[in-house]
Each structure stands twice: as structure tokens, then as C-alpha cells.
Amino acid sequence: MPTIMIVAGEPSGDLHASRVASKLNDLAPGIHLVGMGGDLMEQSGVSLIFHIRDSAVMGIGEVVASIPAFLKKRKLLKRFIRETKPDALLLVDFAEFNLALARFSHKLGIPVIYYIPPKAWAWRPHRAKKIAKNTTIVASIFPFETTFYRHAGANAKFVGHPLVDFAQSNLSREEARRTLNLRENSPVLGLMPGSRRREVDRLLPVMLEAARHIRECVPDCQFILPLAPSIHPESLPKTPFVHLVKGNAYDSMRASDLMLIASGTATLEAACLGTPMIVLYKMSRSSWWIIKSLAAIDWSALPNIIAGREIVPELLQNDAQPSQITPIALKLLQSLEARQSQKNELEKVYAQLGNPGTAERTAQIVLDCLAFTS
Question: Of 46, 121, 162, 171, which cross-links 41 as Cys (Cβ 3.0–4.6 Å)?
């Protein structure tokens, strides 16, 4: 049976790669899967050369400090590729690490499939032509991204966004509130400051201060904070009026009238569930300056990027302050019409994400590459 090498470098990539690996095993029983990833990939039948426990980093300082370890891993993976010549290489996100593997494998004549490709449409757009040159297929997760990569010369295919398959709740708004022990007839504001410690440290105090101001104006407002698995409750400030929820983010989104949410994948998860939001983000000045200087788009939140205009409010860096968050949140909480207007726009965004079955479509693309090259 053929050997497919799969490389993911972060927990989100591990999740999405594991789903494709499971489909590969279903579609081609006995296929040999190897690569770099995490527990989920391993559970899906991938023999790991490296585990990604220490791979998730953010911020310029962390990235710089991690470079030697990444370079060593990449060198060893290149050696493995050269010596074993896998029948195909499936890269999942993790651009700075994976682009070099794509170039190396392409030169050896190994089919390269890039699933969840680099966001060259967002920043450093010059990378697009290099990606087109060094990949066999770009398995794109956004329609506009597919068009972008095709214009750069890539063989890009739209497979749909993986969140469509699992960013959902089977509960109604009322059922979700009962499940989370929330009052059904009082407003609910959800707080999602991110999944990494540094994100939480920067955003949670701002969110909590805004929540205090909102509570003064809307005394019956309820506040919930769905905790990312990486964040321990004892590490958070004591806030008796905030209800902590463990591992139930989608039901929390369903229960909420509005979310204060860190810019990132969670904004698209909220869009899938149709939950109105205000998007916040803060980072170091150096990181912000670098990103702003390289950015090719006007927005940070994925729903706005997909819509091509601002449909959800964004408050970034110095604008992410309680004094600016509070009036916007109050307007949305107190106006059903304003929330419904945003919901209508989020439905349009959701419709652009494709149909369920992203992992299976991606797996089939990989197998088609094997058939084409055999």
C-alpha cells in the first residue's frame, strides 16, 4: 500500500489532519500514514515521527526562540522524505514550516497537497506564486481563496471549510440555556478571550471590565466564559458574576445573545452558529507593527474578510478598551433588530463555506493524486 506523509504543526492542524487521516483509512484500508502531528492524528492511525506538543507559539519573541527546534525537526523530516520517498505529502496549515517541505518534496517529484494553505491573500501575497509552483493541488477552504490561488497559477480546488462539519449545536437557544443553568429570559453575553495564555492575559481583563460596565446598565445580564481546554480555571481572576463553562463552547455560543470574542477561528465558529459578536484583539506593539506592514486586507475578523466588508464590529489594539466596547455591546444587547441584522449577514457568510464533507473531499484529492502518478 502507498505511504502518505501528513504534516501539521499546531493543535488546530492536528484536528483537521486527523479527520482527513480517518477518511483516508476509510477510503483506502491499509494505507500507510506517517508524519508530524498530535494525539488526534496518532489516534487516527498516523505513525508520528514528531509530536507537536511544543510547536504552538505566538508572538515574535516565542517564534524567534523556537526557530532552532523547528529547523532541526524540518531537517530530519526532509531526510525522511529523501530516504523513504512517500507517495504523497499532505501539508496542513503551519505555513512557515511547511512551505520549505513543499519546495523540497516538489523537487523530488513527490505530489504535494496543501490543505488549509497559507493566507497569502491576507499578508505577504508574493508567496502565492511560490506555493503554486511547489504544490500539486491547493485544497482551499474559502471560495475567494480558491480564486486567489488560481490567479497565482495554482491548481486550486475548493473543498469547503472544515468547521461546517462540526461547529454546531443540536440545542435550541432555550435548551442551551437550561443545559448551562442560565435564566432563559435574561440577556446572555459570552466572553471568549482566546485559547492561549498570552491572549487570555491581554484580553480577559478588558472583557471583564467591559462586562462590569454592561452589568451596571443591564443588571439582569448574565455572563458566561467557555474555557479553552488549555486554560485552567484557577489561573483566572475571581469574577463571581461570570459563569465558567468547561468544554462546551458551541452550546455557549448558542445560548448567548452576543459574544465578545478574540479574533481568530472562534469568530468563524460563532458565524456558523449565527451568534452576533464583537471581535477584539491585542498583541505586542512589535508584532502589531509587523503584521500591519505586511497585511494585504482591511479586516481582522474572518466573517468580515469573507463578506468583504465589516459586518461585525472589530476593536483592535488601542481600540480594544472597555470604554469603546461597552456602548457597542449595549446597542447590540438592547436591540433585537441590530442583532438580527448581524445574524442575517452571518448566514450569508456561512453559506459561502461549502457543504459538509470537507475531510472526505480532501482525502479523495490525495488518493486521486496517487492514482494520477502511479
Answer: 46
pLDDT in tens, 313-348: 999 999 999 999 999 999 999 999 999 999 999 999
CB contact at 8 A, 168 and 273: yes
What's the distance, CA 347 to chain centroid?
A: 19
Query: DSSP readout, 332-374?
Result: HHH-HHHHHHHHHHHHHHHHTT--S-HHHHHHHHHHHHHHHH-
Residues 6+ apart with CB under 8 A from 68: none
Helices (H) and strands (E) in the chain, counts: 16, 13
**Tens digits of residue pLDDT in 5-53:** 999 998 889 999 999 999 999 999 999 999 999 999 999 999 999 998 7
pLDDT band at 237 (very low <50, low <70, confident <90, very high): confident
What number of other Cβ atoms are within 10 A of residue 63's Cβ?
13
Dihedral sign for Cα atoms in the order 117, 120, 124, 125: positive
Contact 338, 331 (CB under 8 A): yes
For residue 303, give the nearest of 267, 340, 341, 263 by alpha carbon.
Answer: 267
- Of 26-35, 214-223, 242-251, give the lowest mean pLDDT range: 242-251
Q: 26: which 3 cell numbers?
A: 476509510
- Its pTM stands at 0.88
* Cα torsion through 331, 336, 338, 340, rounded to 10: 150
